[in-house]
């Protein structure tokens, strides 16, 4: 009986280190997020003989994962920003995050936009950081009468806009991606195929559903300067409406936040965690998943991947 043989590749600033560290690898963990947070790579390497040099911070690691029978899947490039050396036994832990999230994107800025569109703002951010803008057309046309960036980094602004419009807002593969959550596309705009997973595909699963967040609507508030009073807008119904604490500058902005929050509430009612028996490096956040062989309430849902964790132990 043949068993699947895992493969992986780690390249440091253009130099392939796979063969050198393979005998020492304890585990490799890659966490991929939907947006807002950087993808993270963790490597734990055995240094029992003291012959491994500590890597410098700022170097780039290109990683690919897969199986011998099906080949490697490129998982991107990461910048080392944390190194730990512990013992005994001596172990080197290397932590790296998405290479596209540069220090310049974390630099705080002061500026404002007036009478513009969401697409113009995002194209400006992309151009300033040498990124290719991948902005969904429907969102790009959204009008923005006024937008302030007050002592705020470009990355934080991107995340804030993603929350406001319920969008995937992230930087991956050299692109600034801004698309509706659930659009199911890659950083280049190509559609991600829907994956079907059965009960036989996994070792462990966990399903949870809660009524505490089963709101029927969201109410947001805005300040009507002409009437000098606080107004509100409701998205959904008022039977069990969630109320947002912040007051917004105008009705349109308040409605956008209310709509985005209601969509988040709908997605957060049910959660499913699944540990696969055989890893799938070809699966990504934002990919749609069909489940088969579980309870009817689970199987009838079309699921959306929010986070993937790929783990490879020493081989």
Low-pLDDT runs of 5+ residues are none
Strand content: over 45%
CATH superfamily of the domain at 6-98: Baseplate protein-like domain - beta roll fold
Task: Estimate the mean pLDDT confidence.
Answer: 87
Count of helical stretches:
6
For the secondary structure, the number of strands is 21
Helix-strand makeup class: alpha+beta
**Which shape, going by the Cα principal axes?**
globular
Looking across the biggest beta sheet, what order are the strands in? 2-1-5-6-7-4-3-21
Q: Quick one: CATH class of the domain at 6-98?
A: Mainly Beta
Radius of gyration: 22 Å
Task: Summarize the main sheet.
Answer: 8 strands, antiparallel
The fold-level CATH name of the domain at 6-98 is: Phage tail proteins - horseshoe like beta roll fold
- The helicity comes to 10-25%
Instruction: Report how far apart the termini are.
Output: 19 Å
Q: What is the N-to-C order of secondary-structure elements (H for helix, E for strand)? A: EEHEEEEEEHEHEHEEEEEEEHEEHEE
CATH architecture of the domain at 6-98: Roll
Protein traits:
Phage_Baseplate_Hub, 315 residues, eight-stranded antiparallel beta sheet, alpha+beta
Secondary structure topology:
Blueprint: E1 6-12, E2 15-16, H1 18-21, E3 25-33, E4 40-46, E5 60-67, E6 71-86, E7 91-98, E8 108-117, H2 118-128, E9 132-135, H3 137-140, E10 143-153, H4 154-164, E11 167-172, E12 175-180, E13 195-198, E14 202-209, E15 217-224, E16 229-236, E17 241-248, H5 251-268, E18 270-276, E19 288-292, H6 296-299, E20 302-304, E21 307-313
Parallel strand pairs: 9-12, 13-19, 15-17
Antiparallel strand pairs: 1-2, 1-5, 3-4, 3-21, 4-7, 5-6, 6-7, 8-10, 11-12, 14-18, 15-16, 19-20
């Amino acid at each position: 009986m043949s068993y699947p043989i895992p493969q992986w590749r780690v390249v440091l600033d253009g130099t392939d280190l796979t063969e050198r560290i393979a005998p020492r690898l304890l585990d490799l963990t890659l966490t991929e997020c939907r947006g807002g947070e950087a993808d993270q790579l963790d490597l734990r390497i055995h240094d029992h003989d003291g012959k491994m040099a500590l890597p410098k911070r700022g170097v780039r690691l290109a990683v690919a994962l897969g199986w011998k029978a099906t080949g490697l899947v490129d998982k991107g490039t990461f910048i080392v920003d944390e190194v730990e050396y512990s013992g005994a036994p001596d172990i080197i832990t290397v932590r790296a995050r998405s290479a596209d999230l540069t220090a310049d994107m974390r630099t705080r800025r002061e500026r404002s936009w007036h009478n513009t569109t969401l697409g113009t703002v995002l194209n400006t951010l992309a151009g300033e950081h040498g990124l290719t803008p991948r902005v969904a057309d429907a969102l790009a046309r959204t009008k923005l009468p006024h937008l302030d960036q007050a002592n705020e980094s470009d990355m934080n602004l991107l995340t804030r806009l993603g929350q406001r419009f319920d969008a995937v807002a992230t930087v991956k593969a050299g692109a600034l991606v801004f698309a509706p959550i659930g659009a199911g596309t890659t950083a280049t705009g190509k559609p991600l195929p829907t994956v079907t997973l059965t009960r036989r595909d996994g070792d462990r699963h966990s399903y949870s559903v809660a009524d505490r967040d089963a709101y029927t609507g969201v109410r947001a508030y805005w300040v009507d300067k002409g009437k000098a009073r606080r107004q509100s807008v409701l998205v959904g119904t008022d039977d069990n409406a969630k109320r947002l604490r912040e007051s917004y500058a105008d009705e349109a902005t308040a409605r956008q936040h209310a709509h985005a929050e209601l969509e988040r509430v709908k997605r957060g009612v049910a959660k499913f965690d699944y540990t696969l028996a055989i890893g799938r490096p070809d699966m990504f956040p934002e990919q749609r998943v069909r489940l088969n062989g579980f309870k009817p309430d689970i199987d009838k849902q079309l699921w959306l991947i929010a986070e993937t964790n790929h783990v490879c132990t020493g081989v």
